[in-house]
TrEMBL record:
GO biological process: protein ubiquitination
Coiled-coil zones: 514-548
UniProt entry keywords in alphabetical sequence: Coiled coil, Ubl conjugation pathway
Family listed: Belongs to the NPH3 family.
Organism: Nicotiana attenuata (Coyote tobacco)
Residue intervals of the NPH3 domain: 203-476
Start and end residues of each stretch annotated as Disordered: 578-598
Protein name per the record: Btbpoz domain-containing protein
The organism's place on the tree of life at top rank: Eukaryota
Compositionally biased spans, kind Basic and acidic residues: 588-598
Stored PROSITE patterns: BTB (PS50097), NPH3 (PS51649)
């Protein structure tokens, strides 16, 4: 045997010694087989007795006495051909889950069927696949992993579909068995009930199938969903697979591969609500934005997040922006769409989103509850305060996010006021009309006492807004006094009063009107301070009155106390004695005065 015939197949697992072990040494080789650059010096007889393909190639070149054959695109390469050649030579080797897919494919390529030899390689490999592999879930997963490099032939031979069906069936059977094992009998109620063991604890297959490539993993999950595997188990598998592919392999995988993984996982998510963790949805959305996934993928994630936004945190919705340098620091547009989905949960239909994976739910769609609205309103206000310092944040975007929720969502406007104050501080070049437009978002009646006190002295607010704040502060104090002394002649200001902050007096020039508003603003601040002092005095007198009434029920004491009250209860600088104007006429003058100056 010359040096050329002693060349070995170019595989890492084969050495010169192993090659010489099963090739006849006493008979010269008469055919050379080339596979993917690997050279096999063999004998025609054992090959043509088992392989229909090699028999045909040799027969076609009988006249030219062919001695060299190249097998192009042989599945499995040199490693698979070496196993097939060993079988032709009668060399024993073990069929395993790691090589059965290769043997099935190479036997089909070389036409090693029963038509050419009894108990040929093809039938032996098929028997092992059906009787051994398909009865074991782990072995099926191993075969699927080997099939990744044998497509599309492994698909044509139905190796992939048989293993996928077996995995789905085994997982479903395991789930049913685990459910029965968790049934417990209640002696008190006389009924069977499920123990509180976590549903996914017994789903050991989750880790096994996470080793598959994304295309085969998708087919396995689809088959499991069709078989009826629990949505919670499907969701747990998706989370586990995403963590491995997007976190552990992020350094080695390309953006194209990561994009494919994200889009596939989103398409595989169960339609049931709340089975997929919200933090995982936000993580996928960040990846989808960063990788520029399809619009359908991102909209599907935004819908799912919007359906359970009341459980989100501020860190969840702070999604970084991955666009050009002049954009905002955070992706405000995405958050705005999520808020729209939250507010309009009952308004969307499948017809509104063509060619989009629309999120469905088994439960009837309803508008958000007041509790959910309250939670989301606090979340939005905190989000606005966080993004407000961004110099690139346009006023229209800020207002659009703030106005997404209905008016009744915010019971207190302190958070919204704080966010607007931060925005005004960071955008000092904002024009007066824009400031007034921004401050119209605030209902100053819904500010707490502390926020109202801060707003009353906040020079960043438009003057009209400050006037409103001071007016409602007076209103609050006046009503507090009325509640403290309901028998007195003091009447509360009506809650329906409003101040027209945008209209200028036609009888005054803008300059005079501004000066007048400034002057009245100072007067209101002083009056507010005096009212607070009087309220403190009245509270002290109230305490004294209660103590004295417990000691004595003398009418003389009540009469003297009424006189003291009459002297102190001069809120707007006018007497409240019987011979002066009534409280209602005072209220009318106050209202007309406020309307006139605004």
């Amino acid at each position: 045997m010359d040096k050329h015939h002693h060349q070995l197949p170019l595989t890492k697992s084969t050495s010169r010694q192993r090659y010489n072990e099963w090739v006849f040494r006493d008979v010269p080789t008469d055919i050379t087989i080339e596979v993917d650059g690997g050279i096999f010096s063999l004998h025609k007889f054992p090959l043509v007795s088992r392989s229909g393909r090699i028999r045909r190639l040799v027969a076609e070149h009988r006249d030219s006495d062919i001695s060299r054959i190249e097998l192009v695109s042989l599945p499995g390469g040199t490693e698979s051909f070496e196993l097939a050649a060993k079988f032709c030579y009668g060399v024993n080797f073990e069929i395993t889950a790691a090589n059965v897919a290769q043997l099935c494919c190479v036997s089909d390529y070389l036409e090693m069927s029963e038509d050419y030899s009894k108990n040929n390689l093809g039938s032996r490999a098929e028997e092992y696949l059906d009787s051994i592999v398909c009865k074991n879930l782990e072995m099926c997963v191993e075969v699927l992993r080997q099939c990744e490099n044998l497509l599309p032939l492994a698909d044509e031979l139905k190796i992939v579909s048989r293993c996928i069906d077996a995995v789905a069936s085994k997982a479903c059977v395991e789930q049913i068995a685990s459910s029965f094992s968790r049934l417990e009998y209640s002696s008190s109620g006389g009924r069977l009930h499920m123990s509180k063991q976590a549903n996914c604890e017994l789903d050991w297959w989750i880790e096994d199938i996470s080793m598959l490539r994304i295309d085969l993993y998708q087919r396995v999950i689809t088959a499991m969903k069709f078989r009826g595997v629990r949505p919670e188990s499907i969701a747990a598998s998706l989370v586990n697979y995403a963590q491995k592919e997007l976190i552990q392999k992020s350094l080695s995988d390309s953006n194209i591969q990561e994009k494919l993984v994200v889009e596939t996982i989103v398409s595989l998510m169960p339609v049931e609500k709340f089975v997929v963790p919200l933090t995982f949805l936000f993580g996928l959305l960040r990846s989808a934005v960063m990788l520029d996934c399809t619009v359908a993928c991102r909209l599907d994630l935004e819908r799912r997040i919007g359906s359970q936004l009341d459980t989100a945190t501020l860190d969840d919705i702070l999604i970084p922006s991955f666009r050009h340098a002049g954009d905002t620091l955070f992706d405000v547009d995405t958050v705005h769409r999520i808020l729209v989905n939250f507010s309009q949960q009952e308004g969307d239909s499948d017809d509104d989103m063509e060619d989009v994976s629309v999120f469905e739910s088994d439960s009837p769609t309803t508008t958000p509850s007041q509790t959910a609205l309250f939670k989301v309103s606090k979340l939005v206000d905190n989000y606005l305060a966080e993004i407000a310092p961004d110099a690139n944040l346009k006023l229209n975007k800020f207002i659009a996010v703030a106005e997404t929720l209905p008016a009744h969502a915010r019971t207190v406007h302190d958070g919204l006021y704080r966010a607007i104050d931060v925005y005004l501080k960071a955008h000092q070049t904002l024009s007066d009309p824009d400031k007034r437009r921004l401050c119209k978002l605030i209902d100053f009646q819904k500010l707490s006492q502390e926020a109202g006190a801060h707003a009353a002295q906040n020079e960043r607010l438009p003057l009209q807004s400050i006037v409103q704040v001071l007016y409602f502060e007076q209103l609050r104090l006046r009503n507090a006094l009325f509640c403290s002394y309901p028998d007195d002649d003091i009447k509360p200001m009506h809650q329906s009063w409003r101040i027209n902050s945008g209209a200028l007096s036609v009888a005054m020039s803008p300059k005079d009107n501004y000066a007048s508003l400034r002057r009245e603003n100072r007067e209101l601040k002083l009056e507010l301070a005096r009212m607070r002092m009087r309220l403190n005095d009245l509270e002290k007198d109230h305490v004294c009155m209660k103590r004295n009434m417990q000691k004595s029920s003398s009418r003389r004491f009540m009469k003297s106390f009424s006189k003291r009250i009459g002297k102190k209860f001069n809120i707007f600088g006018h007497s409240f004695s019987r011979d002066c104007s009534s409280p209602s006429s005072q209220s009318e003058r106050t209202e007309s005065k406020i309307t006139e100056r605004t």
